[in-house]
Amino acid sequence: MNNHVKIARVQVDLTQKQLADKVGVTRQTISLIEKGNYNPSLKLCLEICYAVNKTLDEVFWIERESGHHEKNKR
Amino acid sequence: MKKIKDERLILQNLKNIRIAYIIQTLGILGILGYDLVTKGLDVMTENPLWIVFMVTVVVSAFLSMNVSVDHENQEKSSKNGLVLSLLIIIFISIVVGTLTSLSEGYSIINGVIIGGVLLICGLLPVTYVYYLRTKQQSENADE
Questions:
Q1: Residues B60-115: pLDDT tens digits?
Q2: Where are the domains of chain A?
Q3: B20-62 pLDDT per residue, tens
Q4: Within this chain, do residues B67 and B82 fall inside the same structural domain, yes or no?
Q5: Domain boundary at B23, B46, B71, which?
Q6: Angle between helices B7-39 and A27-35 in degrees, nearest 10
Q7: What are the chain A neighbours of B8 within 8 Å (beta carbons)?
Q8: Alpha-carbon separation of residue B35 from A21, B62, B94, B125, B134 (angstroms)
């Protein structure tokens, strides 16, 4: 699952480790979320959004069409 | 050791425990199976592992009722289900009880006891399922 966590994190000048400490998970989890290899719970998504001062929609929203394209590419 | 707060690791931990549980169950089944094959049923049921295994099976059956109640269609009334299951349990306990008291070497008291035990053992899951269903229905009604 694609998301914009990495961009949002860089914009507020946080490292993976700092973001992880802020939202109370391990750095590995943040890394997996950024790569799209882990599906975070809504609660964790909200925590991440609070930490990077963005809305859910800015960080996690993906258009349905682009999602389909992604699937087709794979 | 710190308490794990990371949701991903908690999930991972649960998955690990599940694998350990599967291995443990296979081990218990292996030991009991060995006893059954080499020494027969009576020796197997004397093994304390047998009690461990049966308790685990009963607990997991009760816990899985939580899941199956949510999974089943809600249309049927829980009252009807309760009455039907009660009738079946009473019927089975009476039949088994009478058959036992009629068998050679067993008195009427034995029949009454066995029937009563069956009745009580059947009542527990039936009332539990009834409780879960009514609870679920009242939760649905809140919506």
A1: 999 998 888 877 766 667 788 788 888 999 999 889 888 888 888 888 888 888 88
A2: 5-73
A3: 999 999 999 999 999 999 998 888 888 899 999 999 999 999 9
A4: no
A5: B71
A6: 100
A7: 25-26, 28-29, 32, 38, 40
A8: 53, 28, 34, 30, 43
Q: Is the dihedral angle over the CA atoms B74, B75, B79, B80 positive or is it negative?
A: negative
B75 to chain A, any CB pair closer than 8 A? The answer is no
CATH of region A5-73? 1.10.260.40
Minimum CA–CA partner of A32 in chain B = B8
What residues make up the domain containing B133? 72-143
User: Counting one residue from A and one from B, how many pairs have CB atoms under 8 Å apart?
Assistant: 21
- Residue in B with minimal Cα distance to A33: B8
> Do B6 and A24 lie within an 8 Å CB cutoff?
yes
- ipTM score for this prediction: 0.74
Cβ A6 vs Cβ A30: under 8 Å = no
